[in-house]
User: Fold this.
Amino acid sequence: MATELWADWAFVSPSDVDVPAERDDALVLLFMCCHPALTPPSAIALTLRAVGGLTTAEIARAFLVPDATMAQRISRAKLTIKAAGASFSLPTDSERPERLRSVLHVLYLMFNEGYTSSSGTTLQRTDLSNEAIRLTRSLRAAAPNDAEVSGLLALMLLTDARRAARTGSVGELIPLDEQDRTLWDRETIAAGAALVSEALPMGAVGSYQLQAAIARVHSEAPSTDETDWRQIVLLYDLLMRLSDNPVVALNRAVAVAMVEGPERGLELLASLEHEARLQGSHRLEAVRGHLLERAGDRQRAVTHFLLAAEATSSEPERNYLRLKAARLTAAL
Assistant:
């Protein structure tokens, strides 16, 4: 099972943005909470907790760190704000670029948690993903010439367009390669694709634009087999130059496997076995199970699907992984 959207750490320097209070109070609040007294990761975590309403555990999973580590980070951020006597205010001209980068990341992670909930009984929290899209639209209205703002909105739209096809009649997870693509929202896909075309020529290419370009390739393909996987690999190659996030490497391994075969994908996974940020996560085991299944090694695929099922806190993901294991076991 390939992952779709995860946290990354690469940003390009944005242009100035003006966010007047009367335009969107929630967006103004985001800029205020992404405080310069904090490091960007701490500001993002605190803002996700205070404004986004995410739990500490959800934020920890987004950052690929243990819950206790994130709890300490948020606690220290609160103490830093208090000790500095920092007031919450809109950014000055010099503060705007740094705060905008943090705001983009907050919106990205809000959408991600809404699109694929990291815990609980439902796969999606549409209220959260819808709010992330709404706020990103407001941000783009304030900064229409910023390529990464447009790229993030494009990424959200292209991804959210698949929402109706991602779950079945009882809320079960349907992976990308099994989705009924006639259920994809073609109007939303067209809007997202247009934003990608608009953003890429603006200047320096950032991670959101690249992820949106990958999402566009998926959205334009009539099926998994007819997807331009070589183009996706090239886009992931560029993305990996901007980010050392191991989930990007996981996604690239899946794309490479579609081009060069599952054995090559499994070779790439071997380099991630000792990646600390993936320890305790279900992602590596799920991808390994997926590639082993494609390679015809059903017995080992079952083992890794079950390991992934035990590691996830999402009930729909757990049920899907166990069902995959059960079907492969029955076919042995």
Q: What stands out?
A: The beta strands are 119-120, 313-314. The CA atoms of residues 135 and 142 lie 11 Å apart. The first helix runs from residue 25 to 33.
